[in-house]
TrEMBL record:
Keywords, in A-Z order: Membrane, Transmembrane, Transmembrane helix
Keyword NADP: no
TM region positions: 89-112
Species of the source: Candidatus Ornithospirochaeta stercoripullorum
Descriptive protein name: Zf-HC2 domain-containing protein
Coiled coil regions in record: none
InterPro entries tied to this protein: Anti_sigma_zinc_sf (IPR041916), Znf_put (IPR027383)
Domain of life: Bacteria
Amino acid sequence: MCIDSQMLSAYLDGELPEPYKTQVEEHLEHCPACRKHLCDMKDLDERIKAASFSDEILLRNKDKIFSLLDKKYFEKGKKISFLRRRLEVSVPSLVTAAAAVVFIFIGGFMFFGTSSDQTKDILPSFAMQADSSNVHYVSDNDGLENYTLEEILQYLDSKGYNVDISIKGLQPLETEPAQN
């Protein structure tokens, strides 16, 4: 019984584990058909490696490859359409669709009317009026300028913050000389 191509391919690639590798080597010593098949696979592998391009060759010819792709697939005359299909709509169907939209809007206004009572049923509205009881100004809140540094530090300490303050330099306040 001969070895299948999958096992010979794994043997050729060096991926076959040891007990199977020894069995394949013993079989190849006695079976000329499998040896020929393995030899053919080696030749094919060498041809593929010889025919493949190296990164160096691809980098040298990169501009030529991109220009050929541009000419073949992205010519100025060709337009790329949505999902490779061109959307064609005839004029009568567009007119029919527009008439249907207009008919639906006019029918809606005729059915629901334009009175304010009927409009309240369709559109939500708000009855709350803006006055001083429900409008709060942000500027009414106290800012930090109304507190001393000591009060701010006490507040931060009560909230659990650890604050370190360093003073880089002090300039004495200029006071006016006392007049006698």
